Amino acid sequence: MSGNGERLGVVVKRGRHARAITARVLAVAMALASGFSAVPASAETLTVEGLYPARSPAAAGVGSLVVERFGGRDGRELSFALEGMLAELAIYGQPYFRVVAERSSAPADAILSGIANAAVQNQPVEEDRKVCVERDDNDKCVREENQKIRCQRRIVTFNPSLRMARVDNGAIVYQRQLQERDQIVWCPDRAAARSVEDTVSALIGNAVAEVRLDIAPVYRSDAIRVLEVRKGLDKDQSNRFRDALKATARNPQGACDIWQTLDGEVPGQSSVVFNLALCAEQRGDLDEALVRYRQAQTMLPRERAIAAAFDRIGARRAAEADYATREDRLSGSRP
To answer: Of 101, 117, 239, 260, most Cβ neighbours within 10 A?
Structure first.
């Protein structure tokens, strides 16, 4: 993940007291979790929603945890931001973790600890500027030259180390060193766009978004592009196929109904078969979606969208199974 704080637009306010991580950090995490390229604005899509697994299944299996006050100059702020994010994190409308205060006597499954220091480095750089070196009697510039001016490049790095260990047996279930970086150049004629403090806060927000993806599943919505090739359809069928494409945005079920009818008229038309697989995936019928995608793969063996669909469905099934197992286990341990 890039350490560019401006790109993510996440700023965690700094100060002596705890600050809950902003809702935008979670939105950023969701966006990062999507894992697909944006489709062109003109492309027709269907939206597929589902639960996808955490990067660290062992950490995601934890039910309750304590966030220790991290070491290092910026550790306190990072730990407050993580604690706020974890307390607000919900799956299917229910809190995913039970966050226990550090000095509480309440039991917890695991402890999240770490250390965090930001480093700032300034480097001299040069930039070219056009400078007027000759003017006429009306003060109009008649000759320019390129001249170099001295500027400063500021590089801020933030590489916190985190570890989550179980309380009962000390097993380490999550360990990672994050690498966040931001740079900015300012010159005599151009001020720095943000302060060091704001940059460090943005990088902390980036780190929190990364940890969120690591240790908990994500429920996300993906806009998946339908196939639009109408080879094998007659004029009337082609027109109805086009109507289905137009309906994907405002009436996706209507689009699916049109493709279902076309499938009965022209069995095995590759775009129709793929789009019906996507319709099944959209409504959550993953078994039917797999049958349709496998059929489409026999006709379109090199279609990358089909391979991506298999990956998506496999991930969703794994996430749901992990979530159900975790809920059963935690329900049995609750008083």
So the answer is: 117
